[in-house]
Amino acid sequence: MSNKTNKIALLRFNYPWQVMLENQIYTLVKFAQVYNYIVMVGDEKSLQVCFKLKLPCLNGTAYFRPYYKDIDPTVDALITDRRHYAPLNWFKLRFYLDVLIKNYTIVAFDTDIAFGRKNLWLSLKKYSEDVGNCDMVFMKENPVNAGFLYSKSNPDTIALFKEWIKMEYMHPHVDEQKSFGLLKHIKCDSKYNPIEKLIQT
User: Fold this and answer.
1) CA atoms within 13 A on the CB side of 148
2) CA-CA 20 to 30 A from 184: which of 54, 74, 116, 124?
């Protein structure tokens, strides 16, 4: 991942979502003006589909297989499918952490998100500055929606992600979104103290 801007968009993919991913990338590049992105794939079949689409694909099986040996990563799991749904959402955090450790600012989002005509990096940078130069931006949703997040790379955010990943084992019946509310790091809402560093929006 070589880029002078040290910013990268992190996408995820499994092969049943091919059309959705193609639409997302089209809007990401054409409208949001994001050109540095990588597609992380958690299984071998989806990886081959990703390569056939000529996308910048990352074999993410190392983030999935060692932790969920009996789970099929190609399952299109609904939220009611507790066996598959939680692992398919938790494993992305290890990927995000690795990229932050490499000193990249990241924006990461689920495959069902498309973009309008606004420069995404400039918008997120301006927003984070306007609310107190925060380190992370989420959509707010009981307590956050982890399907869209922006994070700078620094010791605070790296420590937060490490703690967040541990929550899977400390609270095995809580998904990655709800577990965010259990973290000990400072969090604030944009309408509150702008000096605090980690933010929900």
Assistant:
1) 13
2) 124
pLDDT of residue 83: 65
User: Which DSSP letter does residue 17 get?
Assistant: G
Q: How many domains does the chain have?
A: 1
Q: pLDDT tens digit string along 166-175? A: 988 888 778 8
Q: Across residues 12-36, what is the average pLDDT?
A: 94
| Segment (H or E) for 161 | helix 155-170
Whether residue 13 is contained in a domain is answered as yes
Beta bridge partners of 198: 136
The CATH number of the domain holding residue 40 is 3.90.550
Q: In what order do the strands lie in the sheet with 57-59?
A: 57-59, 37-41, 7-13, 105-109, 144-151, 136-140
pTM: 0.84
The Cα 62–Cα 85 span in angstroms is 18
DSSP 198: B
CA distance 1 to 120: 19
Q: Which tens digits make up the pLDDT trace of 106-162?
A: 999 999 999 998 999 999 999 999 888 889 998 878 788 889 999 999 999 999 999
Please work out, in degrees rounded to the nearest 5, the angle formed at the alpha carbon of residue 161 by the alpha carbons of 159 and 154: 50
Token pair for residue 35? 């050109």
